């Protein structure tokens, strides 16, 4: 397998050009062809010499993803199952909002975090993605939007996997996405979501970025969170909250808490009261997520009335809270569902 060219930064492409007897600016031209003109083959890079294009073909691949399945929802959501070079499959979702198009990317093949309500963990973790394999998901999404005269306006790293367990590749991906000579996605239009990998939260606090941080919390205390999220046994609830307070003190940025409401499990009034007590002094926003039914799991959705009651209690305590608008419900757009079906058939 030849290296994926999306794995290289602009500076690395410039160094590669020089190592191959070319001026450094050729690396910049290649970067422009990849991210601005978004070509699918090296042969299309018409301002490069034939010899240089041949070297690119010999040394790199520009093809990271093969489309296995494409599902389109009535609400405009498009979900892809992409095949990788080693026959693994990953999911990517384009979501249409009134403020633009958001792309949800995957950072790992499978997931080892083990959240008991999530389809992503079925089958465990197979491997990390490279930065270039994550980049390719956004570039492919942008190519699709190009045909409609639209662009990717935001990115959420909330697909399959735990990005903070693939930290270096995730950070390289982020740097490539925000590069002003590339796709130039605004930092505040990117959100990375973690289940609470404490050492990486501290590390991320030192990165000096404007990228948004979201935490999958799903419970207001240690005991319940450990039942729902086995990762909590490695990184206990109090340690997660402490790391988030450090992140906030260091960056001054608002934190988003993702809270999946599960019928009769974590959605009672006392849970809302307890959660409000934990986060009351934090600059934060709570995103309530009515849990998607996953056939392999036994959880049920919280009733509509209980969802609104949970929201009301948090709001009464001064917590900024919203209920996530469901998208792609008719095409199994929840993380891992399409891949799980594919694994069954495969």
Biggest β-sheet strands, sense, barrel: 10 strands, mixed
Q: In one word, what is the shape?
A: elongated
Helix content: 25-40%
Tell me the β content: 15-25%
Tally the helices.
12
Compressed to H and E, one letter per element, the order equals HHHEEEEEEHEHEHEHHHEHEHEH
- What's the overall average pLDDT, rounded? 93
Instruction: Count all strands and give the number.
Output: 12
Query: How far apart are the termini?
Result: 23 Å
Spatially, the strands of the biggest sheet line up as 1-2-3-4-7-8-9-10-11-12
Helix/strand/pairing category? alpha/beta
Query: Low-confidence runs (pLDDT<50, min 5 residues)?
Result: none
- Rg (C-alpha, Å): 21 Å
Please describe the structure with a list of short key phrases separated by commas or semicolons.
346 residues, alpha/beta, two-stranded antiparallel sheet, 20% strand, elongated
Summary, kept brief:
With 346 residues, this protein is an alpha/beta fold.
Structural account:
It is a single chain. This protein is of the alpha/beta class. The protein has twelve helices and twelve strands. It has helices at 10-19, 25-35, 50-59, 131-146, 167-178, 198-205, 222-228, 231-234, 237-251, 269-279, 304-316, 337-345, and strands at 66-72, 78-83, 89-97, 100-104, 108-110, 125-128, 152-157, 190-194, 212-216, 255-261, 284-290, 320-323. It has a ten-stranded mixed β-sheet with strand order 1-2-3-4-7-8-9-10-11-12, with helices on both faces. Strands 5-6 form a two-stranded antiparallel sheet. Helix 1 crosses helix 2 (25-35), helix 6 (198-205) packs parallel to helix 9 and helix 10 (269-279) packs parallel to helix 11. The longest helix is centred in the middle third of the chain and has 16 residues, at 131-146. It is elongated, with a radius of gyration of 21 Å.
């Amino acid at each position: 397998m030849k290296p994926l060219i999306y794995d290289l930064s602009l500076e690395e492409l410039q160094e590669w050009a020089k190592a191959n007897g070319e001026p450094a600016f050729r690396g910049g031209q290649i970067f422009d062809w990849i991210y601005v003109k978004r070509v699918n083959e090296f042969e299309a890079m018409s301002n490069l010499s034939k010899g240089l294009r041949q070297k690119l073909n010999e040394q790199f691949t520009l093809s990271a993803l093969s489309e296995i399945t494409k599902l389109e929802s009535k609400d405009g959501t498009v979900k892809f199952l992409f095949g990788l070079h080693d026959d693994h499959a990953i999911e990517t979702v384009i979501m249409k909002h009134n403020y633009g198009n958001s792309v949800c990317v995957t950072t790992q093949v499978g997931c080892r975090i083990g959240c008991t309500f999530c389809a992503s963990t079925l089958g465990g973790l197979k491997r990390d993605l490279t930065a270039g394999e994550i980049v390719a998901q956004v570039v492919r999404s942008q190519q699709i939007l190009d045909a409609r005269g639209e662009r990717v306006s935001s990115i959420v790293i909330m697909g399959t996997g735990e990005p903070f367990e693939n930290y270096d590749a995730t950070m390289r991906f982020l740097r490539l996405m925000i590069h002003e000579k590339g796709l130039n996605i605004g930092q505040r239009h990117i959100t990375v979501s973690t289940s609470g990998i404490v050492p990486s939260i501290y590390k991320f606090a030192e990165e000096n970025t404007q990228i948004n941080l979201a935490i999958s919390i799903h419970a207001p205390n240690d005991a319940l969170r450990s039942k729902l999220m086995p990762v909590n046994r490695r990184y206990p609830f109090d340690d997660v909250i402490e790391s988030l307070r450090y992140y906030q003190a260091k960056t001054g940025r608002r934190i988003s808490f993702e809270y999946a409401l599960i019928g009769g499990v974590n959605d009672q009034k006392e849970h809302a009261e307890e959660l409000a007590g934990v986060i009351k002094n934090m600059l934060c926003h709570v995103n309530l997520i009515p849990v998607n039914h996953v056939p392999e799991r036994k959880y049920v959705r919280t009733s509509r009335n209980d969802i609104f009651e949970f929201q009301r209690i948090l709001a009464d305590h001064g917590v900024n809270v919203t209920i996530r608008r469901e998208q792609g419900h008719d095409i199994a757009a929840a993380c891992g569902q399409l891949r799980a079906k594919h694994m069954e058939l495969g």
